[in-house]
Amino acid sequence: MRMKLLAAALTAAAATLTFTTSAQASHSWGGYHWARTSSPFTLKLGDNLSSGWKSYLSTASSDWSSSAVLDTTVVTGQSNSACRATSGRVEVCNSTYGSNGWLGLASISLSGGTHISSGTVQVNDTYFNTSTYNTAAYRTMVMCQEVGHTFGLDHQDTNQTNANLGTCMDYTNNPSGPPSNLHPNSHDYSQLSSIYSHLDSTGTVGLTKAVPAVGNSKASWGKRMEHSDESGVDTYVRDFGKGEKVITFVYWAN
To answer: Given this model, what pLDDT does residue 231 score?
Structure first.
């Protein structure tokens, strides 16, 4: 923990809210972040997964905990395959959600402005049970990427035809590379240090409160706000009023 505090002090930089698909610029996702009163902080990842997915969540948790500003810990899930959000933490789920086009979902609830109050990750076994996606590389990358979104990270690049950047936050149809896109890279860790360079007067990590929920169908996600023709990555916003919103990042299957 002391080493993390030292590393955070050395690497923190001014936060930026710029949205971009360039690997060389900020890939903060809309400036969204968990509010916290101390740094580093620990975020719980609720395990609602079947046995075939548990090791991939463990790997993602270990990878992201190498950040100087946050730790993650895998805990017993408080949801099920429907993946209803739990305040103050992230619930991670899998199921055969159907041939609905999406491979993975990451949703975050916002409580007044840009503060994340809960998160969910869902991976769709309808596609991961097929020969195209039933590989360790795809499972590792998608789990790493969807969990990374719940911290407030966007993609570094969304063009599948570009060379791999060596990060799970790079959209690709060849996750094994070379280089492989299975884990975060130094730019991801630097971006997290930038996002979490400031402290907040109150915290949303571990907060207990009712949170709005969306389902796993397009009709429940609200209005599409961002779209990439290069990859088909979409971002949707469901506004519940009084500062409560749910933002959903959709990873479409090829």
So the answer is: 55
